[in-house]
Design goal:
This protein is an alpha+beta fold. It is about 25% helix and about 30% strand. The protein has 21 helices and 39 strands. The strands form 10 sheets. It has a 7-stranded mixed sheet with strand order 27-30-31-35-34-33-32, sandwiched between helices. It starts with a strand and ends with a strand. The mean pLDDT is about 90.
């Protein structure tokens, strides 16, 4: 919500300098403070008093402009709407316009030009650049434009919590500021408009629990070409709404000023009576944005005798829409149940200011005043004649406002202060109607626009908020602190993160909701849970793996020229349905691009499978049980068939995978690069051995190298496992240091060279002991068709 301080001053006499701080401390968090217009100087109001054709250019005119000085300025202008007698913003010599554009004396086709006549876009006031910004004829020539239109006005943008729908209007903000600053709000009386036509319509509410009050009136003979006055379009601009035309601008103005959504139907397109009803199953409606939606009985619609006209409180339909030629309208003002409308806009992927307010609750007593105010503006600005207000209401189905008894002792107990009855009553005088008060308690009735005030605790919170959270003293409570046992055999997640960060990874945090399309491509074997009311259609699937978030992060960075990426994330994935949901924590990572940053000391190369496998091995090594994990060829459809491995523990359980993404998958996601990923179950990863002290060996170690001819279908892991299983006394470890092939070898063979490390902690090693082990190793290797080269 954007707040114009100039507009706010219409209701609040004294606006404090620290209003932004007070709003934030009252729970209305201030996000930004900006000026109403970008900086410019030297612009005054000028009047064109003479206009001649340029002798050497068909599209240029020579204007004599009165700026209140003795002599007029000569300015050459090419705007199509320049005309004799108009008043326009005039930039003088030396003026500075937005983007540091300086006005200097110039010659245009041989004619001197001493200034510039400006459009609204050139002043940063709108995107309209079709012609000059025509000003009201009553303005004083020579007056400073910034001062006349208060363009130094401050715009405060606030972020509202869902329970404060009452602050989604300037009137609501004014009430809030009056309560915070202990002032009296100046409310203008709403005048009842004179009825000059007999047109009426019957309103039939078929679902009173969804809509307990519906009002409307016919307004005819409007001038759709009437211009929106500058004061209105400027207030709308400062509220973040662009100009659309007089009908829409007035309904938008009432929305921002009072908080009541209105909708104008073209009167000639309504057949028979108005019906407020639930939609019929499979009923269709083409909305104002052009989308064709299929409705169901959970949707509330406004209809006539033949068809649905609008989704109630969300968006109107094209069949009853006003256009540039509409002169007769039926103007709607209604109260819809927030529960009925909750999530309905998102169901169809829609966003509207009306739905945003109705979902949070609109004042159920505001409808008639808003309708009268809109009628007044329409008649004043666009002519027209108003009919009587047509109303249908069910008072028993409107929200109930029950008196709330507030106990002073309870207030002080919860807030932790000793506020007397007088202070509490003073704080609450702008909140609601206090009907009874005594030494122990008071009774207050919350107004119709405050849906968040229902029980005593709500009023206590309101007292603390208005008194000022920063004025409540801080009391440090004492409590017994108990140390929780931390198992030594469990490694915390932060340790794994530290290892990845040390290996040049960056942690990312992505949403648990992902694009359904990406989810289906990445993990087609697991159907995701689809959210009923997603925050957006693109984030409607619960992830079954962390990869969609990582890959969307890579895609985002690719589009911003970041080609070397190393990222990881920890979080939950969600598999199964709501009845059998399996929620597990994973640690996942992805890399692509160059293996190292560009440098002179090392030849550049792309990352490969062994880079990310090394990162995974570093994570497994934290447990001290890295030898208990093995890498086996993976059948995961997301991985490249020749560059993917499942990570298996001693029990034979798959605890994760690592490898290159399948080329078909990256092509579908439009990621034109080799991407390598891993994903590990945190629960299986975090178990670790408790460190034990080992005495430093007093005797030297020994090593032997073996070059073996091995069938290509036998993996290095199989060879190492066979060698290690041959002896468990003095053979300490085995390392692969070479792989070699040439044309002299048999087809399907390759050479692998291993180093075997031996160590006896009790005595010196003897050659015959090592020879005996080597002989047994070679015998065992023959069982897998591996022979000494």
């Amino acid at each position: 919500m954007k707040i114009s301080l100039s507009w706010l001053s219409h209701w609040i006499k004294n606006i404090p300098d620290d209003l932004d701080h007070r709003l934030t401390m009252a729970g209305l968090e201030v996000e930004s403070i900006n000026s109403a217009a970008p900086f410019f100087s030297g612009v005054v109001i000028g009047e064109v008093i003479d206009l001649q054709a340029h002798p050497d250019a068909d599209k240029l005119r020579i204007a004599q402009v009165n700026i209140g000085t003795d002599a007029p300025l000569q300015i050459v202008c090419g705007a199509p709407n320049v005309a004799l007698g108009i008043k326009v913003p005039t930039a003088l010599i030396g003026a500075v316009l937005p983007n540091d554009f300086k006005i200097k004396p110039a010659q245009l086709r041989g004619v001197d030009s001493c200034g510039m006549l400006c459009s609204a876009r050139e002043l940063g006031l709108s995107e309209d650049h079709a012609g000059l910004m025509i000003l009201d004829a009553s303005l004083i020539v020579g007056a400073n434009l910034r001062e006349v239109f208060d363009l130094d006005d401050k715009i405060i943008e606030i972020d509202l919590t869902p329970n404060r729908g009452d602050c989604l209007s300037m009137l609501g903000i004014a009430r809030e500021v009056a309560a915070i600053t202990n002032q009296v709000i100046k409310l203008d009386p709403i005048e009842k408009q004179k009825v000059t036509i007999d047109d009426v319509i019957k309103i039939n509410i078929e679902s009173p629990k969804d809509c307990a009050r519906y009002l409307g009136r016919f307004i005819k003979n409007l001038n759709p070409d009437a211009p929106t006055p500058f004061w209105m379009s400027e207030r709308l601009r400062r509220a973040g709404i662009r100009e659309h035309g007089i009908l829409v601008d007035i309904t938008n103005y009432i929305l921002i000023e009072m908080g009541q959504p209105l909708h104008a139907f073209a009167a000639d397109k309504i057949a028979g009576d108005i019906y407020v009803r639930r939609a019929m199953d499979q009923e269709t409606l083409i909305l104002l944005d052009g989308s064709n939606v299929t409705l169901d009985p959970n949707i509330l619609v406004i209809a006539d005798a033949k068809k649905a006209l609008a989704i109630a409180g969300v968006m109107g339909g094209q069949d009853s829409a006003c256009n540039d030629k509409t002169t007769h309208i039926f103007l709607e003002s209604a109260w819809f149940n927030p529960i009925t409308l909750a999530g309905k806009a998102r169901q169809f992927g829609l966003q509207s200011d009306a739905a945003h307010r109705y979902e949070r609750g609109v004042d159920f007593n505001l409808g008639q005043d808003a309708l009268e105010r809109a009628t007044q503006l329409l008649i004043e600005l666009a002519g027209g004649e108003a009919g009587a207000i047509c109303k249908s209401e069910f008072l028993d189905d409107l929200p109930k406002r029950n008196p709330i008894t507030l106990n002073f002792a309870r207030v002080n107990k919860i807030i932790g202060m000793n506020l007397d009855a007088k202070i509490i009553a003073e704080l609450l005088k702008n909140v609601g109607n206090i009907s009874e008060i005594n030494q122990e308690s008071l009774v207050i009735l919350a107004p119709s626009y405050r849906y968040d005030l229902m029980i005593e605790e709500d009023i206590i919170e309101e007292i603390a908020r208005l008194y000022g959270y920063d004025n409540i003293p801080v009391n440090i409570s004492s409590a017994k602190v108990q140390m929780h046992l931390v198992p030594e055999n469990k490694t915390p997640l932060t340790r794994f993160k530290e290892v990845l960060i040390a290996r040049d990874y960056i942690e990312v945090i992505t949403m648990s909701f992902v694009k359904p399309g990406w989810q289906a491509i990445i993990d087609p074997s697991n159907a995701p849970i689809i959210l009923k009311n997603p925050i957006s259609p693109e984030l409607s699937a619960m992830r079954t793996t962390l990869l969609p978030g990582l890959l969307s992060t890579i895609d985002y960075n690719f589009k911003r020229q970041q080609k070397r990426i190393r990222i990881f994330e920890s979080g939950s994935s969600f598999k199964g349905g709501l009845e059998n949901l399996e929620q597990s924590a994973y640690l996942s990572g992805a890399i692509c691009g160059e293996s190292k940053q560009n440098q002179w000391g090392e030849t550049a190369r792309k990352v490969d499978f062994f880079d990310i496998k090394g990162d995974v091995e570093a994570l497994l090594a934290i447990s001290g049980m890295q030898d208990q994990f093995s890498f086996v060829a993976s059948s995961n459809a997301a991985l490249h068939p020749g560059q993917g491995a499942d990570i298996v523990n001693q029990a034979g359980d798959i605890i994760g995978y690592v490898g290159a993404l399948h080329p078909a998958l990256t092509q579908q996601l439009d990621l034109d690069v080799d991407i390598f990923v891993f994903e590990l179950k945190i629960e299986a990863l975090s178990l670790s051995l408790i460190p034990k002290f080992c005495e430093i060996p007093k005797f030297p170690s020994s090593k032997r190298d073996l070059a073996l001819l091995i069938p290509k279908e036998i993996s290095a892991n199989q060879v190492i496992s066979t060698i290690i299983s041959s002896d468990n006394t003095i053979l300490q470890s085995v390392h692969l240091f070479d792989i070699y092939t040439d044309d002299l070898m048999k087809a399907g063979e390759r050479s692998m060279a291993f180093t075997l490390f031996f160590q006896n902690v009790t005595e010196n090693l003897k050659d015959y002991e090592i020879d005996a082990i080597i002989s047994k190793v070679l015998m065992d290797l023959k069982l897998i068709n591996a022979t000494l080269r």
